[in-house]
Amino acid sequence: MKLTSIYRHCLAIVLVCAISLGAHAHTMSIDTTSYVDMGELVITATRTPRSLKDTPVLTRVISRKDIAQTDATDLRDLLQQELPGVEFTYSMNQKLNMNVGGFAGQSVLILVDGERLAGETMENVDFSRIDMNNVERIEIVRGAQSALYGAGAVGGVINIITRSAQEPWSLNLNARLADHREQRYGGVFGLKQGRVGNMLDMQYTSVDNYTVCMDYADDCEFRRVYGGTTLSVKDKLQYTPIDNLKLTARAGYFFKEMTTDIDVYERCRDFSGGLKAEYTISKKDFLDVSASYDQYDKSDFLHLWGTDVLDYRNLQMSVRTMYNRTLRTKDILTVGGDYMRDYLRTYQFADGVGRVQHTGDLFAQYDCFLGKRWEVIGALRWDCLSDGKASSQLTGKLALCYKLDALTLRGGYAGGFRAPTLKEKYSYFNMVGDIYIKGNENLVAERSHNVNLSAEYAWKNYNLSASVSYNDISDRITSTAPQQGSMGEYYIQYMNLPSAQVLGIDFLAQARWTLDGGHSLKARANYVFTREWLSQGGMTPYCPARPHSFNLRLDWDKQWTSFYGTTFSVLGRVLSSVDYETMQMDYPFATRHVHNPAYTIWKLQLQNRLGKAVSLNIALDNVFNYAPEVYYFNSPVTLGINLMAGISVDVERLWKNGKVKTER
Amino acid sequence: MLQALGYKFKHTLALCLASCLLTGCNGLFDGIYDEPPSDESLQLGFNQGDTPNRFSIVLDARDYDEWIYLDLHRRTITTMPIPTSLTGEWDGKSQWAKYSVYGSRYEQLELRPVDTQPEPEAWDMAIHHFDVRTNGGAVLRTDYHSIADLPSSSQTFADEAFVSDQWTMHQCIVDFSSMFDHKIWYQTSDVNLVLTEWVRMDFSTPPPKYEASNRVYLLRMDDDTVAALRLRSYMSEAGTKGFLTIDVVYPY
């Protein structure tokens, strides 16, 4: 689909929406309910619970209701639907890479309930292990956050908050079917008796391999899409022995199998567990202590031999502690420290021997209120790493927030760093043919300095925000152009690129209207501009960010009878083209120009609510039947229109009275 | 009951975590994985089977720069390097050929004359990675997936169409290093394309993908004796591709 065609489609949709809005204008009434719940508590930006409207660092929340209406299966599904400037692209052998506003997956820290995830492929975590089955909300804070979260939080933090049991019992069963025999079956079972609550979450997914590029004579960067199966089982047990102490134990198992090769199945397993104690010592003092275990294994199941051979293990064990004290009336002092043992054994190490890195840190943050309108927050963190040349890192943060009625102005500076991983330091393996990947023990930490400004206007049912973020990055960790070694072999080596800069501009407009006759309408438009400047000398290991991206979401809701209601949604995303230079993998390794065309994908979705318990979702994804002429690594993985059908049943509501529930 | 379960669960988890942190363990559940023998411990060569004419051959065919010659009559193996340059008089056909490869589209970029491929005095079939050529023989692909299921005599297949080797320009890969840029060097060579299909290699999008046919092939040699061949595996038990295990019945 050419750009003019994209604009034509966008214009048509905007016109249709405008006409439908106009038709309803005479019946529209003002509702003071905002599109987003500005009173919702968020935790990621400050590590203390703050309402969304009061948080001193701009935070984007994807609520449980948004997730349910998107009917997303995993994090990838959800983020690319909900956030412009987020793109999931392939790299070799269809390893998934995330790009968030010019920062690749290795520079964006992904947390689940505040805990890091072990395991990576091409420096990205396994996104498929983060299912959306039992997620309460997702908090996204853009910009460096290392002063609170340490290594890896260079471009931002995505924190997935899971649900806890709230009702005596609850049981949600859900399923979704789509093209390519895509299937998802999930269940969440909650129990709460007195001081004990438990949530058990299970999900199974399956999708076939399929071919996107039929003609072997074209230039497709990938031809087959590898499906496979995943199984995830997670349990969270909470116990409140006394009113001011909450104990949480969790355990999880994840399994994935991909049939990338007919005789070799790629398998991944994750075993995780953790303990957490949250102790409210007094009205002014709070202590949080946790321990976490996360083991991510990769193995090859050799069909010809019937053997399952382990070839990668990353094990992260950590202990965290954090103490908050309220000073004066509202100021909060936060201090804490963490320890992590990071073990990596991989086929990519020449000697096959596992390596260990220990990381310790101390941090302090002071959140200070200056009168009713001003708030200043400052943080400092010292990280100490046992291995390599990035052994000591000091990062800071200073944020200012000014509130004037409906207007909130925010600005600040934040430092970030990414320590080179064990893989980036010690790899030595033959990728294919005579090309080797070499680690570099002399790597230093990638550092970033982020300056950001934002304005947010929340008035009645309208919410507008604009933000600008500029990041100056030094020693970005990337890989060299191919070089010839002393033995005549070719190799690519990890390196520090002297400098890089990323500029991001984000405009977001959200509104909600309640119309007479039980109708309501919600609209959200979000535009993101991204610009990356990279110094010469390295290879871009991922597809750069597209400069312009735009997401639109419209939800029209109508409760027709007490038994039947619908939500009709239009979800669209428009991504501009991107041009960049990459290196030819052929002597003399000249650069070549790559042009990835613009595209747009639109989805229509109808959610039918039957009674209080049942929700039927029917979605038509890619309604304009877009299929790339050439499948580049950053092309959308689609062959055209995709029909999806899903069902969600809140079993306990079949017996209970209660309000109509729209969540999955 | 839920409360008691909660205590038990938490205590078990706490014990696991504490023991892991204190002992510096490097992971749990190792028992779910297999520990295959290392590639170094493989018994390469001919291995006698349960009857005199049945045996298997284990080969290290990982390298792209050599041909492995098998003499089934004498059960010997000889390895010969692939010439990389022209040192004497050119035979008029031995070359290295560089192609731009996009799936089934081959575009010749460069030709480089090289010396003639050396061969031992006696041999029946030769293997280069997964490519196979014969010494004047011909090959039939059968519908059988197991040597045990074959008819008792090769005479059953006497009237079938056996296929001889043919000259190829872009079959025998000798340099993969520009694969990501879709450029590959080949040795021009005779190849038996029927037998070579015992492993299909698709490198249209790196890394290469492999698929074994799992069929039994019959090799009729120039002395009219017949060998039944089945590639049991093209990888070692540790998963290293290029280690071939071939089940053979000869004479069949």
Task: Give, in order, the helices and strands of chain B.
Answer: HEEEEEEEEEEEEHEEEEE
Total domain count of chain A: 1
- Main sheet properties of chain A: 22 strands, antiparallel, barrel
Q: Kindly state the number of beta strands of chain A.
A: 41
- The low-confidence parts of chain A are 10-32, 658-664
Task: Write out the strand line-up for the largest beta sheet of chain B, numbering strands in chain order.
Answer: 1-2-17-16-15-9-10
Helicity range of chain B: 10-25%
The 3D shape of chain A can be described as globular
Quick recap:
The complex is a heterodimer of chains A (664) and B (252). Chain A is mainly beta and 664 residues long. The longest helix of chain A is centred in the N-terminal third of the chain and has 22 residues, at 3-24.
Structure characterization notes:
The complex is a heterodimer of chains A (664) and B (252). With 664 residues, chain A is mostly beta strands. Chain A has one domain: TonB-dependent receptor, beta-barrel domain (Maltoporin, Chain A). Helix content of chain A is 7%, strand content 59%. In chain A, the strands form six sheets. Chain A has a 22-stranded antiparallel beta barrel. In chain A, strands 4-10-11-8-9 form a five-stranded mixed sheet. Chain A is globular. Mean pLDDT of chain A is 88; it is low at 10-32 and 658-664. Chain B has 252 residues and is mainly beta. Chain B has a domain at 61-229. Chain B has a seven-stranded antiparallel sheet. In chain B, strands 4-3-7-8 form a four-stranded antiparallel sheet. In chain B, β7 and β8 form a beta hairpin. The N and C termini of chain B lie far apart (70 Å). The model of chain B has no long low-confidence stretch (mean pLDDT 89). The chains are: A mainly beta (664), B mainly beta (252). Chains A and B meet through β18, β19, β20, β21 and β22 of A and α1, β14 and β16 of B.
